[in-house]
Design brief:
The protein contains 2 helices and no strands. By secondary structure, it is mainly alpha-helical. The longest helix is centred in the N-terminal third of the chain and has 21 residues.
Length: 51
């Protein structure tokens, strides 16, 4: 159980790093829209990892 949690934390850290590196949308949209898009992308990644 602990290793699953650590794996999820590591994945989230890497995903955030990659997302921030390639994200040019952030400066072009409002903070609310940006956060909604990021939440949707994270939910999709989590769905892919569960399957």
């Amino acid at each position: 159980m602990v290793s699953d949690k650590l794996g999820a934390i590591q994945f989230a850290a890497v995903h955030a790093s990659v997302c921030n590196h390639f994200n040019s949308e952030r400066s072009l949209t409002s903070r609310t829209t940006f956060k909604l898009n990021c939440a949707a992308a994270l939910a999709e990644w989590r769905g892919l990892c569960v399957n």
